[in-house]
Amino acid sequence: MKSKDLLLICSEPGFWGQERKPWVSIDLRLFQSELESHGLKPQLTDIQSVALDAAQIEDKCIFYAFSQRIHLRQYIKDLLTFLAQQNTLIPSLELLLSHENKGYAQLYSQRLGLSKPQGWYLTDIEQLKQLKLSYPIVLKSISGTNAKTVWLCHNEAEIRSKLKRMAKSPNSLVKLDYLRRKLFRKNRSYAGYPRFEPRQDAQDWLTYMTPGANFLLQEYIPNLDCDYRVIAVGKRFYLMQRLVNKGDFRASGTKKFVFDITPPEGLLDFAQDVFQRFDAPYLSMDIGHKEGQNYLFEFQAMHFGTAAIVRSQGFWLNETGQWQFQEGASSLESTLALGLAQYLEGRQW
Ligand SMILES: Nc1ncnc2c1ncn2[C@@H]1O[C@H](COP(=O)(O)OP(=O)(O)O)[C@@H](O)[C@H]1O
Ligand SMILES: [Mg+2]
Predict the structure, then answer these.
(1) Which letter does DSSP use for residue 5 in this model?
(2) Counting ligands in written order, which one lies closest to the CA of residue 145?
(3) Most buried of 80, 81, 112, 134, CB within 10 angstroms?
């Protein structure tokens, strides 16, 4: 790949998340100059400028930033889905669609042969009738973070009540309109639609206007007192352990981090295998480990928390068939630049 073809698309002008928090940009100038030190000559733009000229952008290698801002998520997804037809996306379109979307991520990881824990992306509680589930089971909303919308449910009634909270009831205007339709349209008819029946129609209308919620159910892996955040960047693997609070099963959001642990046997091999199945320069993985088994709870190829990179004393490398810890502090921008350069080097174009 010639470096002149590399286009970097910021999520907002001059903004590339994330550094310490989603609202803090990395140092873009430093990132660019680090890329240049690897022989790359990226052209920097942003999603707003790209949108004005999208049909003209062809045959580029596009490395893009994401955003947690809801309107921007949709905007970035629309534009990059459009650009994917004429250009190469880094990370791949599948990873963009998986981002902040646990449902799509579940579908995609199944295709890649990663189905531990097992999971089901659902839109209606009635779908449970077609499944043979064992309880307790983990329920997740599609786009939550920090375990705020991840629950352990012991039966169908618990799932039902959590879903009720996730999908708001119809608002009062809708309820009022329902009564109007039900009570004041008794003699109404529609020419050409003889099946119209006012009461049934009011009921169907209310059902249609009642918000729903998509959700993910996941096999519960019991008795874990931590999970592992592994961030793969090019050939490097950064590691962080996250402890759960007493009486809880969720490690995400506790902020109880332990860096520079000795990884349990097989964890890094698993992380490497997962990373190689994806098409991205970086991958952040939330992994559970128990009795020699590994479970991929979640992954993100962009816009992930970066503490494991900047707060560890080093990273793991497997260049000789053996994992070795390489000590030394990592600067975020230079690490991300190195990861992108290594990825581009290793790709077949
Ligand atoms: N299937 C599961 N079995 C056991 N624990 C789980 C499971 N899924 C998630 N967890 C725990 O819950 C935490 C939050 O889940 P996760 O899917 O990472 O959601 P979030 O996006 O909110 O971080 C994880 O860090 C892990 O500790
Ligand atoms: Mg998580």
Answers:
(1) G
(2) 1
(3) 80
Torsion angle, alpha carbons of 210, 213, 214, 218, to 10:
-140
> What residues have CB less than 8 Å from 173, skipping those under 6 apart?
none
User: Could you identify the atom of ligand 1 that is nearest to the CA of residue 119?
Assistant: 1
Say how far apart CA 268 and CA 294 lie, in whole Å.
Answer: 10
Give the chain's radius of gyration (CA, Å). 24
Strand positions, DSSP E, the chain: 6-10, 43-46, 61-64, 88-90, 119-122, 137-141, 150-153, 215-219, 226-233, 236-243, 257-259, 282-290, 293-300, 314-317, 324-327
Nearest Cα residue to 146 out of 243, 218, 252:
252
- For residue 97, the surrounding DSSP H or E stretch is helix 93-98
Q: Average pLDDT, stretch 197-226?
A: 93
* Contact (CB, 8 A) for 296 and 285: yes
Torsion of CA 242, 246, 247, 249, to 10 degrees: 0
**With bands split at pLDDT 50, 70 and 90, how would you rate the model's confidence at 348?**
low
Tell me what the mean pLDDT of segment 298-316 comes to: 93
All structural domains of the chain with their residue ranges: 3-98, 172-211
With tokens 């990370």, the residue in question is 91
Ligand 1 is surrounded, with C-beta below 6 A, by: 117, 138, 140, 144-147, 150, 218-221, 224, 227, 249-252, 286, 288, 297-298
Q: Hey, whose CA ends up nearest to atom 14 of ligand 1?
A: 147
Q: Look at strands 137-141 and 215-219 and give their pairing.
A: antiparallel
φ, ψ for residue 165, nearest 5 deg: -70, -35
**For residue 219, which of 131, 97, 100, 148 has the smallest C-alpha distance?**
131
pTM: predicted TM-score of the whole model, two decimal places: 0.91
pLDDT at 98 over 50: yes
- Starting from the CA of residue 100, give the closest ligand: 1
